[in-house]
Fold:
Amino acid sequence: MIEVADIHKSFEGHAVLQGVSFQVAKGELLALIGRSGYGKSILLKHVAGLIRPDQGRVLIDGNDLGFLRGKKLEEMRSRFGFVFQNGALFDSLTVFENVAFPLEEKTKFSDHEIKKKVLSILDEVGLSGAENKYPAQISGGMIRRAALARSLVRNPEIMLFDEPTTGLDPVIGHAILNLIDSCHKRFEFTGIIVTHEIPKAFEIVQKVAMLHEGRILIVTPPQGILSSSDPVVHQFITGSIDGPIQYR
Amino acid sequence: MFIRKLGALSLFSLRRTGRMGLFLGQAFIYASTPPFKFFRVLQQIRFIGFQSILVIFLTGAFAGMVLGLQGFYTLNRFGSTGLLGPMVAFSLIRELGPVLSALMVTGRAGSAMTAEIGIMRNTEQIDALKLMGLNPFRYLVVPRLLACIISLPLLSSIFNVVGIFGGYLIGVRLLGVGVGNYFGEMTNYVEMEDVLGGIYKSLCFGVLITWVCCYKGYYTGFGAEGVSKATTQAVVLSSVLICVLDYFLTSILF
Structure:
């Protein structure tokens, strides 16, 4: 369903991605791990068609995102749901209005139907009672849940999560991962989750890919990465200071 | 080395100018093709137009009063204070009304446009719009462009009317110019083409303000400092371009 083929991307002469390739099958959830600041979010934005690669292709069901423009690109993007690191909720709208926004703009549902759908999804993500609050009035965990609800309300085929648990306490982080898991099972989307929740995130994904020095070092089921003998993978998973990964 | 730097600077400037041109082109294309967002246009008219009325009223009144005062003392030297009405009207309708109201809108609404769009860019709200399959231009730029095109001529007209009455207050009520002279000479001299010229100017300024301010917000730098710099640049660039464009429009229209 998602195929990333030999993606290269540089910013001001600095190569961030240097030939990234991997695939995600329909209905599969893949965890993308790797060092902070080394291009995971950039890669995710390539998959969403928000950034165009210098070289290489991103294919969604065989359609090259690089060749899509205007209406066709908008239609393709409608198939995506994206949970940003900071939620990216519209700060001038309430939680209810944020979740209702894509339905109002992209569907022909009546106000009554929209209200029903929004309240139902907010209940599902545990945000009943927070409908009339603005993003500035709710906690980080609630913002992520509201962002998840906004993405899921249109029932997207592909979900992309950019560090959905970063900055949250372990309990809320775990709850968010469980919520993603239950939503994945219910909505059966294909997804990529950029995360540092190791090994907790491995319980909810089918595959793990590790990005290292601009390339995918390994793509494997979660058990494979935990038992990997690759020194880079091993150091990253264990969080050890000693090893081939040099921290500056 | 110098040649290389000059070349790099020229290319950079060309790229920026091209990007700005494309930005305006896209805004006009999306403004003229459905789906139209009427409610968003109305919301922006409320913000850019209606909520600017007080500041336009105050600046218009005092601009007219100053014109009345200065005009009276200048015309008095030549014994032609009877022409105070046309002088105030010409100054306001052809120049000060469109220019000052555009500058006021730049300061009040233009800066807000840049800051709002800039913050939306930095907090990935624009990316969120794109990923809903929505076009950010239709939501952020087009409503502001249309609202500015509609609001600016109206604000400028309010400015003119209030300014003329400000001049009346000083010239007629305070300094003793005859009321018949003030308004009578004004109707004798001021032609419809003067009024239309002022309106055309306002329309152009409306496009200019939205173009510069939305562009600066859309391509803002990172963080609070980036947004702050973009807002300053938007206000300064819009204000300078308003004066430059005013000169060229005056030489073409009148």
